[in-house]
Amino acid sequence: MARLMSETHRPPAARRAAPRRFAALDGWRGVCAVLVGLYHVEIIGEIYAGHLHGVTIVDNAYLFVDFFFVLSGFVIAHTYGSRIAGADDFLSFAIRRFGRVWPLHAAVLLAFIALELVKFFARAHGIETETAAFTRSFSLPSIFTNLLLAQSFGLHSGLTWNQPSWSVGVEFYTYLVFALMVLAWRRRIAAAATLTAIAAALVVALCSPAHMRTTFDYGFFRCLYGFFIGVLVHRLHRSGRGVRLNPTALETVVVLAVMLFVSAADARPISLVSPLIFGAAVHVFALERGAVSRLLLTRPFRAAGAWSYSLYMTQALILVLMARVIRLTQAHLGAEQRIVATVEGSRQSLLWFGSNWSADGLVLVYLGLLFITASITFRFIENPARALFNAVALRTESRAGRAAAHGYRMMKAPPP
Length: 416
What we know:
The protein is mainly α and 416 residues long. The protein has one domain (12-411). The protein contains 16 helices and two strands. A hairpin with a 2-residue loop joins strand 1 (338-343) and strand 2. Helix 2 crosses helix 13, helix 4 packs parallel to helix 7 and helix 9 (219-239) packs parallel to helix 11. It is globular. It starts with 11 loop residues before the first helix and ends with a helix. The relative contact order is 0.18.
């Protein structure tokens, strides 16, 4: 019978198999999105970060993208590991994941294209701009690779358009690799995931000059490494094995370990260990037993977790807009102010307004704009697009896949 089984009439085994949501890990996702956003202030916005400049956990926060990869592998394995049983389920999975990442990516890309069009028409009317339109990282050919989520497979000499979106492209194709592996080696998925993680880590270690700080060139292998570590962590989580320590003490130790590691890693060889460190954090916080987990379950962290994808995807757009406003403001005042500072090991001229405190104020304005924008894009782009693509995907699923998906929706639905 094609009709979806209800929660009441599904067999007990199916009910037990319905995946749950890891709310504390969602809180982690929100924290990591904000830290990556702070990292990008000087990298993308070329805005001096004030008292945050030189704070090592912010300077090295690019590594938290690897937390996203590990967490994604964990959650995808948990949610879809038993739902992909044939070609129709593979297609449904691909549609769902495409609908999760592409619509907001495309919307932000269109916003960047609009900015370049403004620059183009400004130059056409004799108004000087810092660079010509549709040049460098905003080239016309790279629009098409971005639309195909293929911008980070070594096809360009650097990051293009919405720079953080490099990870979205490689993660989508990693989803497809995972689904194919489930179809081909379901009973040997742990071995396949282990070999994939090792092979990808070796590629990054041997080929990337900056080790884990690799994006447009070896970013796909970086993602494979972290994602399949997450798949293995899910296997460990499902086995029920854990460290028998006080939950609050264990969570506190893990948080301190993550902070110390990220602060010390930089772009050195030790950064290659980051997926393992983050994998340990995911394993501990998936249990949601300690005081830190309870903090992550509070409303602000849950909101940040829900908006995390929007927080990540809109930060470059906001920083570019802020940088342009600052330049125009300084030009209007007749006194452009810059400070030379070390960013990622090289000296760079950054925008500022003459003091660390004014720079701190700009960072706070940026964070405020980031959260406001993320809440809007989450409500009006992410959620409607996800619902639309999920509805399309539901038509392609097998009967077993529909029943599992229905159980997941029932699990997430608020009580009556």
